[in-house]
């Protein structure tokens, strides 16, 4: 099979690959120099849509509507865009071997690709219950959501099991967003998670209390403090129930599992330096191997603001790290310099009529402010995190654009806070002073 050779290769076809391609174009990449190799069958798209509008019964999102870079207000890069720019979009192609010493990638069908500069943008894969040997976890209608084909299978099940019962395993991002989407489709939903409250990696008990009560008021059942230990199935191999560790059994026509992800780094094991579960990079996303860059979920990078190495799984970082790496590649080639990556951690979510944003770090003392009554018509509230007398994190539900900008600004400024009670009284007004 003929070998293909490119100056630049991006392995992975997710959000980071799309934003990197746009930056390559801005930097003046020449036709024929760049290839994106993706195991997905479609051009890069905004993955967050899958757990939101892709599942909605009305106002549904479908491709080509959410190809990158619409998620950040940019132009939509359709497959033709890549052709027009002379970028090779090599789809439905899984790389199974990477030899960084010889700068060669090999696909599952034996195709080989040579490169001069490589960007690793392989992202994450979902953690599956079959990985833990959970009995019956291979039954039909047990779903995970990572790519568009997963979304299509879930959409089909929602139609087939109309007005049925769903169990959502996991109380994090995916669990909360999918529970809302299923409920909007008139599915009866039960959430199951082992932690004492939802989104425990970010939410305080006070924040979680609002969302759990809000969801309960929408008719979503919440079962905490236990896990799925097995699944029943019928003669067709379809899931019929979820067996919980505490002995309870929940009927289910559909099960959706969202219990975390794992960065896809195995292709590069032993060839690059790793740290904190990812591939270690510098502030330009170059790895320990010159000319090899890692971006998005797989990169463990210097988080300048907190003077530590961190790995971040979020679309905002996927976009920005990809752009930084491409700028760094061209600055190196042109003999110019750029600033090191200076990222402010950012997370957001939307479900029902709720929409929250978080900036910074969630450690230290917490101050809950605003109207966090789940039955309120405004439900505008938030939390600040204070460490060593400085405000280092901020969460806001239902903020305006200006208010969201204000909390982003103060978490980077890290103003001093002397009186937590006063801060609680001021609430969002504190942030808008700066």
Structure description:
The protein has nine helices and 26 strands. Strands 1, 2, 3, 4, 5, 6 and 19 form a seven-stranded mixed sheet that branches. A five-stranded parallel sheet has the order 8-15-9-10-11, covered by helices on one side. Strands 22-23-26-25-24 form a five-stranded antiparallel sheet. It is an alpha/beta fold and 434 residues long. Helix 1 (15-26) packs parallel to helix 6.
Question: Overall 3D geometry?
Answer: globular
Going by helix content, strand content and strand pairing, the class is alpha/beta
* Percentage of residues in strands: 25-35%
Question: How many beta-strand runs?
Answer: 26
Q: Which helices and strands, and how do they pair?
A:
Blueprint: E1 4-11, H1 15-26, E2 34-37, H2 79-84, E3 88-90, E4 95-99, E5 104-107, E6 112-120, E7 124-126, E8 142-143, H3 148-160, E9 165-169, H4 173-184, E10 188-193, H5 205-217, E11 221-224, E12 228-233, E13 239-244, E14 249-251, E15 254-257, E16 261-263, E17 274-275, E18 278-280, E19 292-294, E20 299-303, E21 308-311, H6 315-334, E22 346-351, E23 354-360, E24 365-370, E25 381-387, E26 390-397, H7 401-413, H8 420-426, H9 428-431
Parallel strand pairs: 1-2, 1-6, 2-3, 6-19, 8-15, 9-10, 9-15, 10-11, 18-20
Antiparallel strand pairs: 4-5, 5-6, 7-16, 12-13, 13-14, 17-18, 20-21, 22-23, 23-26, 24-25, 25-26
Helix pairs in contact: 1-6
């Amino acid at each position: 099979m003929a070998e293909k050779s490119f100056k630049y290769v991006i392995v992975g076809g997710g959000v980071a690959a799309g934003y990197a391609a746009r930056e390559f174009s801005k930097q003046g990449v020449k036709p024929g120099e760049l290839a994106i190799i993706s195991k997905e069958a479609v051009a890069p798209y905004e993955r967050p849509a899958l757990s939101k509008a892709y599942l909605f019964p009305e106002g549904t999102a479908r491709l080509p509507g959410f190809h990158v870079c619409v998620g950040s207000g940019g132009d939509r890069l359709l497959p033709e865009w890549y052709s027009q720019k002379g970028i090779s979009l090599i789809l439905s192609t899984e790389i199974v071997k990477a030899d960084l010493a010889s700068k060669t990638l090999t696909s599952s069908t034996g195709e080989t690709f040579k490169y001069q500069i490589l960007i690793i943008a392989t992202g994450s894969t979902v953690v599956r219950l079959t990985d833990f040997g959970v009995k019956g976890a291979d039954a039909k209608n047990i779903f995970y959501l990572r790519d568009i084909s997963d979304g299509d299978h879930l959409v089909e099940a929602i139609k087939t099991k109309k007005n049925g019962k769903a169990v959502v395993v996991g109380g994090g991002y995916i669990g909360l967003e999918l529970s809302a989407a299923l409920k909007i489709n008139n599915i009866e939903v039960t959430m199951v998670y082992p932690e004492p409250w939802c989104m425990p990696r970010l939410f305080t008990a006070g924040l979680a209390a609002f969302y759990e009560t809000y969801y309960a008021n929408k008719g979503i059942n919440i079962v905490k403090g236990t896990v799925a230990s097995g699944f029943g199935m019928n003669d067709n191999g379809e899931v019929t129930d979820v067996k919980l560790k505490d002995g309870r059994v929940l009927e289910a026509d559909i099960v959706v599992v969202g219990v975390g992800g794992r960065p896809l780094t195995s292709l590069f094991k032993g060839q690059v330096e790793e740290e904190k579960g990812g591939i270690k990079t510098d502030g330009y996303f170059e790895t320990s191997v010159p000319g090899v860059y890692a971006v998005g979920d797989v990169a463990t990078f210097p988080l300048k603001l907190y003077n530590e190495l961190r790995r971040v799984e979020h679309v905002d970082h996927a976009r920005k790290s990809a752009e930084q790496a491409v700028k760094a590649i061209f600055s190196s080639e042109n003999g110019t310099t750029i600033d090191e990556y200076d990222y402010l951690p950012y997370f957001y979510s939307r479900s029902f009529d709720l929409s929250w944003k978080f900036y910074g770090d969630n450690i230290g003392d917490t101050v809950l402010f605003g109207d966090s009554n789940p039955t309120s018509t405004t439900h505008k509230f938030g939390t600040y995190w204070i460490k060593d007398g400085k405000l280092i994190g901020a969460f806001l539900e239902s903020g305006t654009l200006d208010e969201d900008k204000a909390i982003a600004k103060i978490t980077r400024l890290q103003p001093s806070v002397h009186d937590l009670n006063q801060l609680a009284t001021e609430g969002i007004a504190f942030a808008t002073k700066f």
